[in-house]
Design goal:
Elements (H helix, E strand, L loop, with lengths): L17 H27 L12 H21 L4 H28 L6 E3 L5 E4 L2
Helix pairs in contact: 1-3, 2-3
Length: 129
């Protein structure tokens, strides 16, 4: 599915490493998110910032906050506007999916301290993480 080779050298294919798969996933999600933001900006003449190619966690949070504020503004200022609200929700969900991915990826890629202390009876007293 991802183009992994059979482990034979010289066959011209290279194995896709986990970080490359992760980068491809992020690129696709950023592209989808920016398309939704473009749709909002074009249809309603807004100026929501698009994400850069490799957004930071802070940039994701900033765009999420901006979309949240926009949603609240549209909700409070217009009695109708389901299309606007739905498009904002879709864009915000795309940003939140990326935020969640970043947070999970950050948690699973941090090194773990495998130092284990034993108590008096030989059991595990404390595990440092």
């Amino acid at each position: 599915m991802f183009g992994f080779n059979s482990g034979k050298s010289g066959d011209g294919e290279s194995m896709i490493l986990p970080h490359q798969v992760t980068q491809m996933y992020i690129e696709r999600k950023v592209e989808t998110t920016n398309q939704r933001i473009d749709d909002l900006n074009t249809r309603f003449d807004w100026s929501v910032y698009k994400l850069p190619e490799k957004p930071s966690l802070g940039q994701l949070r900033g765009v999420d906050d901006e979309l949240c504020s926009l949603y609240n503004k549209v909700t409070h200022n217009r009695s109708t506007g389901d299309t606007e609200r739905n498009m904002i929700i879709e864009a915000r969900q795309a940003v939140q999916d990326l935020l969640e991915f970043y947070l999970v990826f950050d948690r699973i890629t941090k090194p773990v301290d495998t130092k284990v202390e034993e108590d008096e009876n030989g059991g595990v007293a404390n595990v440092s993480t």
